[in-house]
Every structure is written in structure tokens, then in C-alpha cells.
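User: My instructor asked us to take a sequence, write out its structure as C-alpha cells, and then describe one feature of it. I'm not sure where to start. Here is the sequence I was given:
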Amino acid sequence: MNTVRSYNSSLRRDQSEATKVRILSAMAALMDEGGGQEPTNRAVAERAQVTEVTVYRHFPSRELLLRALWAHLNRQAGVNAGLPETVGDLRARIAPLLASFDAAPAHITARLTTAQGRAARASLDPERREAFLAVVAQAAPDLPEGERAKAAAMLQLLYSGYAWLSLREQWDLTGPPAADAVAWATDALLAALKRRGSTPIAADQIEEEGA
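Assistant: Let's start with the prediction itself. The C-alpha cells for your sequence are:
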């Protein structure tokens, strides 16, 4: 009896996961066809051949649906860059991160340019800040705590879809050339942080360094 119950439970989990994949695949396809515009849950349900209630049952909010779609597309591309934990980790994750963006350009563009996409992205801001402030603390331990947000913000900007989108749309840089550019800028910033010690980050200080 327990064996039967275990089998049925496993079968239900597999069916639930398969339904989630159908929903996420349907949403990704509709976004690609719509040039990055987010489809309604009704449209997603119709494409996935499930009810709209089923979509809501698996993804109760739009934010959860977008987060799941982000992870789904990264899995499809074989990339899961995530947030850096150390200075070396940041450098190593740049190429995989940009590769994941290149694998799903419509989805990434929607995350950056639509209100719902920006809202879903903003839900991860606390984790982003914590990760990049930790990287700066490691790279420049003597930098005053009040100055670290400036450096963390610039490192995070380089390690983001916004940098990817600018390189792609304004400079036609994708793939390894884009990764090279971001890695170079990141290396330059990290080296400058290492040199400056406890010197505050200010325009007059930057000018003096370059003199």
C-alpha cells in the first residue's frame, strides 16, 4: 500500500513539474513572438493548453511567474550565473551571465523595459546589494563603509542586463566581445579599488589619480 501511495505521489509531482514547464515554455514562446511584450495569463494558458486557473495555481502572482521564467530560460541555456560571492567569483561569472542573456534576448529585454519586468527584477534588489557590497568589502576592505555603495553600484551595473542591452543595441556587441568588454571594465574598476585604500570615491580624487 505504501509503495502505491509513494508511486502516486511521485507521479503527481512529475505531472506538476511537466505542467509548469509547459506554462513557462508557452510564455517564453509568446514573448519571443511579441518582441518581448509580456502576454496575458489567458494567452499563456491557451498556448500551454491548460486552464487559466492552472496557471494561477502554479504561479499565484506575476512576479513568481517572471522569476520562474527567468530560471527556466537559464536552465534551457545551460547557464545559471547567479550572484557573485567573491571577487574571483564575480570575474568568473561574467561570460556565463552574458551568455544566458544572449540565449533569451526577448525575455531579458522585457525584464528591463516593461513595468512588470522591472518590478520582478526589483524584487531581487536586496540580494543584489548584499552580494555586491560584500564583493567591494573584499576588494577594498579599507574603503569607508559609506563609500562602498558607489563602487558596488558600478560593479553591479556592469554585471547586469542594462550593460548587456546597451552593448547589444548601441554597439552591436554580443557574445565573447561583449563579455570581454565587461570583464575589462570590471577588472579596471577592481584594480582601482585595490589601489585607493581608504581614499573616498570623489570626482576630484579621480582626476588626481589620472594626472
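For the description part of your assignment, you could build on this observation: The mean pLDDT is 86. Try explaining in your own words what that tells you about the chain.
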